[in-house]
Amino acid sequence: MVGSPGVVLKSRFVMPSSDEYKDFINYIDRDDAKVTENIIVDENDSFSVFYQYMDYMGDENKQGALFTCTEDIVNVEQKSSLKDLFQQAQENGSPLWQDVISFDNSFLQKYGLMDEKSGQVNEVKMKNVVRAAVNEMLKAENMMDSAVWSAAIHYNTDNIHVHIATVEPIPSRAKKWLMNQETGKWEEQVRAKRKQSSLDKMKSKVANLIMDRTIERNLITDLIRGSVQMKKEKGIDLSTLRQSKRLFQKALQRLPPDRSQWRYGYQSIDEARPYIDQIVEIYLNRYYKSEMKELHILLDEEVEVMKEKYGEGSKYQNYKQTKLDDLKKRMGNAVLTEMREYQKEADQRLYELSKSKRKYQAPMYRQNLQASRELNRALNNLSYRLRKTYHDFRKERNMEEFDRMLDGYE
After folding, report:
1. Tens digits of per-residue pLDDT, 83-104?
2. Hey, is 270 helix, strand or coil?
3. What is the pTM of this model?
4. 366: helix, strand or coil
5. 232 class by beta-carbon count within 10 Å (0-12 exposed, 13-18 middle, 19+ buried)
6. 126, 234, 294, 371: which has the highest count of C-beta atoms within 10 A?
7. What angle do CA 358, 363, 365 make, to 5 degrees?
8. How far apart are the first and last CA of the chain?
9. Could you report the per-residue pLDDT of 30-85, keeping only the tens digit for each?
10. How many C-beta neighbours within 10 Å does residue 180 have?
11. Sheet holding 161-167, edge to edge
């Protein structure tokens, strides 16, 4: 059992006119980081501390080299330019966004980013992971073209940390009026708070790239493609199943008159939903029994992966049921779509019959359709819809990043 997450992200921001910049210094001035002796604090200019911090972070003997979105190692000249950009950002009122990504060392060792004996980190991959994660956050915050950031890897703590500092030299975000708690005056400030979903994407990107479950995803894809080909060759025909016909009709009889209400999640179809669920269950058990068993195994594996990523406190338990409920909803809507088409054709036929003055009543007509050609055709169409819906669901699981699926699960 995994008790702690493999990746932890802590984020905050400080405003250029605020003494909260000192809080940033308090963080980096921890004893375990041994920073106190290396930074001289100018109490009259809290932002200058950050400059000195950057000097410190650029010392490869104490920490990993300072790196950016384009440079693996920032040289003296580049560091000077970087400081100028941070100074410009401060003067223009940009917030300073601070992100600290910390890792469980056993997590890094398991996935090949840390040598277990030497404790050395694969810096090339780690820096690329950080770049991709920061880009994910910046895209979500619409700051890709305006932000400047720098980062460094901390080695002299119990667990590896990556510190990231981001600013906008020319702020692009909206401004709002806020009370300065120190001066008691209202000030127009750049909106600093980032969306939680943006930070979640950043964190998840880190975990996904490190874990790199490409092999597992390809395995699922191969399974799906093989299943699709097999089912195409074998053929699927719900119209040959008497039980499917009965359930199809019972569901139809319990649906509301307004076909726009025929959506799986709508309360108005509560009476019909059990019959729809039975149709889906019959279909999956008859034609995808082994694939569903494999799907359950894969979902269980992903639950364990998420437990390792996010720790025992996360809501990873809900992941499997949520994905199965999603499949049920998709399949249910596929059934309802075919029922909608079927009923539309039936109503059109009744209308044509009424125009020709042939006396047919809708209830009797619907009851007598059990063995009709129209019902068989509808069930054949339903077979196709269910097959396509099932494979779309499985394919989507493999292509999407697990991070995006985890939004709201922390």
Report:
1. 888 888 888 989 989 899 999 8
2. coil
3. 0.53
4. helix
5. exposed
6. 126
7. 50
8. 18
9. 333 333 333 333 334 333 334 444 444 444 444 557 789 998 888 878 888 888 88
10. 13
11. 7-14, 96-103, 161-167, 148-154
